[in-house]
User: Fold these one by one.
Assistant:
Number 1:
Amino acid sequence: METSGNFFVALQQKLKIKPQNKRVYKEAFTHSSVNQKTAAGYPLNFERLEYLGDAILNSIIAEFLYHYFPNAKEGSLTKLRAKIVSRSKLNEIGKELELYSIAEISNHHNAFGDNIHGNLLESLIGALFIDKGYDKTKRYVMDTIIMPFIPIESLDSLILSYKALLIEWGQKNKTPVAFETNQDKGLDPNVNYSCQIHYQKKCIAKAKSSSKKKAEEKAAKIAVRALKINPKVE
Amino acid sequence: METSGNFFVALQQKLKIKPQNKRVYKEAFTHSSVNQKTAAGYPLNFERLEYLGDAILNSIIAEFLYHYFPNAKEGSLTKLRAKIVSRSKLNEIGKELELYSIAEISNHHNAFGDNIHGNLLESLIGALFIDKGYDKTKRYVMDTIIMPFIPIESLDSLILSYKALLIEWGQKNKTPVAFETNQDKGLDPNVNYSCQIHYQKKCIAKAKSSSKKKAEEKAAKIAVRALKINPKVE
């Protein structure tokens, strides 16, 4: 358990947070096991801030994905968000930030399971939001929590449709990318479709698979890599 | 279907919105049945904004409840939010705001079910957020969407514990409220507990019920009404 002085030093040095409302950060790092109470006798621990932080984090990620994948459908955005803010991912990030080491917990040797790390991460986000508002919290979450732990390449690999990305890229650059997909009759039914992708009169990628869609995605992925296309926010 | 001119007049007159980013409001009111496409050939309709608006609305309500019920536990806040932003409630509000009448839908005589109203409400919130940011969207949502449709009395009736409210009120006003609860032996087991509440040496409420907790809540509710206590945000 840290003393109050050490706690605010750690907040500033490890987490780069300069608190205005100090009380709310103390609350964010107080576990129910400490059994702390408000003046009116109600439980005082990080659970209410965790509830708030969970909602704010969901909004921040929703906004980020909305802009980052301007053509993705609503269902895909929902799936992507679920991957990014999965319980295991939040636990991993909270652990990496060593939030547990500055938390007030009645017995640090107790096993609270891995969820304590993700819960502290959410309550920290809740405290930031109360202290600094939505926009500053978004910047902090993107810079400190998302970008270092969810790198561009990992999102890249979550691209929803390489074919769509490729066609859009071709239209934007006014150099169309052409897909030629054929059914290979009489061959192995497991690799029954082949796709070739043409760009500037050259075949830049080809692939085979069990469906038209799969063959096209497989070839498009190769082409996206070959053309070094990056689905950056604009 | 409204022409573009009428659409922005309606937006301003009916919904009191002055758009900066006009395009995003058009998107928020375009149904997939219109089959509109972006320049790159992707579907253009309100579904992406609905996804974003859903997240933002959840954050706004989470923040509101966090402040409005400063002593409620995380589980209760979650339940309260679910009640406020239930599908049927959103549909009811969207219908009341007549969002459907300014939406672009391929065939207004088609039955899209009641969910269209709630979906349009969420996509409107998404558009507001893109156009005006979190804080202005929050103010709009509270003033135009929450307060007129989720009146204080309705939240009041969702109070989690009248007993807790009453005790806290007594502590704040330094005039304690005392609960006297007894088991009524030998009587009807369905009304086996009785509770009397004393305030300034007078009995201000009494109630009977099948459990200690129910009798106390029943009496506390009467006392809260009698003392005209309102769980306002501070």
Number 2:
Amino acid sequence: MNTQDLIQHLPARAAFSAAKMTKLDCFRSRHLLVGLNCFEPGQEQTVHAHDGADKFYFVVTGKASFTIGDMTLEARSGDLLLAPAGLPHGVARALERTVVLVAIAPAPRA
Amino acid sequence: MNTQDLIQHLPARAAFSAAKMTKLDCFRSRHLLVGLNCFEPGQEQTVHAHDGADKFYFVVTGKASFTIGDMTLEARSGDLLLAPAGLPHGVARALERTVVLVAIAPAPRA
């Protein structure tokens, strides 16, 4: 990767679509995927799980209702949400325009 | 881990010491360590590297001067800094009270 990519201002990298939530990669290796998930109000991410990989969400800006296991949790800027391997997780509904930092270790296949 | 630990408001978890920067774990597995590094103004983290593990810093609040490889980068809230395996990195100096989310994959030994 280029040295200029070693620092990224995430609010400036966020990109939104009226059609559905968007994803973009910030870093990818065998060990780690780091990316952004960007939501317009009302958009969602379907509940899913990663076998053998641990994941977290960190809400950079905005507010959304997350599903973690059998819980529904409203989270806002500054909140970390953990989805250890195998635990179903998703975003039930963004309540505002929302930018979420996501990390998955090890990285899923591209 | 307890289900109540699956969501953590990171600014509320931050803890500072007048003596030196502090570290605390938010999540630890074989694949992933997630934690906070907390700095009072002027505090530092010595430059170091992780063989075989990829790391990132995300500045939650504050502003600090980071070392990444041979670069010195001033970063503020919203900035992601990447330190792929083997690349030296550290915090030269916190310019304000600063809280940094840190992830390392795979996790170093406790």
